[in-house]
Amino acid sequence: MATDFDPIENGPARLPPPEARRFRVDFGLLFIASLSLSAGIAVWITQGPGQFFHLLWGDTAMILSLLPKIFGGILLAIALSMILPRDRVLRLVGPDSGLRGLVIASGAGAVVPGGPHVTYPLAMGLMRAGADAGAGTAMVSGWVLLGLNRVLIWELSFLPGWLVALRLVLTLWVPVAVGQLARIWARRVPLPDDAHPGHRR
Amino acid sequence: MNVIIGTVLIWGAAFALLRHIARVDRAKLPQVWRAARATFLVMLPRTVIGLSGASFMAALLPKGQMAALFGPEQGITGILLATVVGAATPGGPMVALALSATAFKAGAGTGALLAYLTSWSIISLTRTLGSELALMGPTFLIRRLILSAPVPVMIGLAAQAIQASW
């Protein structure tokens, strides 16, 4: 593929500020910690410490097996955000990309296979490279609601075809609509930089 | 096995991009590395805590009774109930779809079933707590959830109306 852009000019490639690299405790972490702690305590009380540790070890094994995938996904997203030509991303899925941009983002979310460890890093990479909150939301919504992978592999093997088709037809407009609302919202109140270090919006 | 295939594919794509960066501007590689490491370190505690919490919640849910919850109920009550049950269903597609199939066989209404599936798709605790909160940030997630909240009920009602007119 010919590259007709200058990555030095176009790549965001901004380093996170030093304070962002330190361990951060924020709302997200506190929320998730209190939720998980309460659930853990409830399991301990209602089902006993045996079940508690059984679940905990199971999770540890699962997380360990996921770690390389998660890190690979992040590496992919950051490399992508440096390679993607910012002007083109802006035109395609930037704040002024209109409904067309939201349709593109929703479609990308629906088509890209690989689950959370691909789609979230991809949305993050696109947002670092110039996509707006509307396109990011449309992409995530397109994946969770219309994801082809899940429809073909999972839904059709559990449910009758007419039901899956009805769900898809009724849901088709949703990612674009939710994306448009998120875009309007972000125009009034921009998304804060609360996701991760080096996040550009 | 799926995890291994996915990991290999992701790393393959990442390496291809890194090679491209190395060819164009080698000096950028350390920047990619630093940014990736910083993001990973922020994400790690959140993902570990989130995934454990989601599996604790899954263990607490009475899955046997959940399908029955939106079985006989019809109309808006059934749809609202299904939406709540869908939001509370953790785990991957296996859990939610097995539950839907059970409910479908038990005679759940189309409206309630689609409301359930839509609600679960939007919220799925394992996904939102395990990855989205950490990678996209709480504001992105909360806004997406608020904006999507009416969707399961709307789709449930539409499906019900369509079924009634058949």
SSE-based structural type of chain A:
mainly alpha
Number of strands of chain A: 0
What's the SSE pattern of chain A? Answer: HHHHHHHHH
What's the N-to-C terminus distance of chain A? 28 Å
DSSP summary: helix tally of chain A: 9
- Structural classification of chain B: mainly alpha
Strand composition percent of chain B:
under 5%
Largest sheet of chain A: none
Over all CA atoms, what is the radius of gyration of chain B? 20 Å
Number of structurally distinct domains of chain B: 1
Layout of strands and helices, then pairs:
The complex is a heterodimer of chains A (201) and B (166).
Chain A (H helix, E strand, L loop, with lengths): L6 H4 L16 H57 L2 H8 L4 H14 L4 H13 L4 H14 L1 H11 L2 H11 L2 H15 L13
Helix pairs in contact in A: 2-5, 4-6, 4-9, 5-6, 6-9
Chain B lengths: L1 H23 L4 H32 L2 H7 L5 H14 L4 H13 L4 H14 L1 H12 L1 H11 L2 H15 L1
Helix pairs in contact in B: 2-7, 3-5, 4-6, 4-9, 5-6, 6-9, 7-8
Give the key terms:
heterodimer; A: mainly alpha; 9 helices; B: mainly alpha
Could you characterize what this model shows?
The complex is a heterodimer of chains A (201) and B (166). By secondary structure, chain A is an all-alpha fold. Chain A folds into two domains: 25-67; 84-201, no CATH class. Chain A has nine helices and no strands. Chain A has helices at 7-10, 27-83, 86-93, 98-111, 116-128, 133-146, 148-158, 161-171, 174-188. Chain A is globular. The two termini of chain A are 28 Å apart. Chain B starts with a helix and ends with a helix. Chain B has helices at 2-24, 29-60, 63-69, 75-88, 93-105, 110-123, 125-136, 138-148, 151-165. Helix content of chain B is 85%, strand content 0%. Chain B is built from nine helices and no strands. With 166 residues, chain B is mainly alpha-helical. The model of chain B has no long low-confidence stretch (mean pLDDT 85). Chain B has one domain (42-165). Chains A and B meet through helix 2, helix 5, helix 6, helix 7 and helix 8 of A and helix 1, helix 2, helix 5, helix 6 and helix 7 of B.
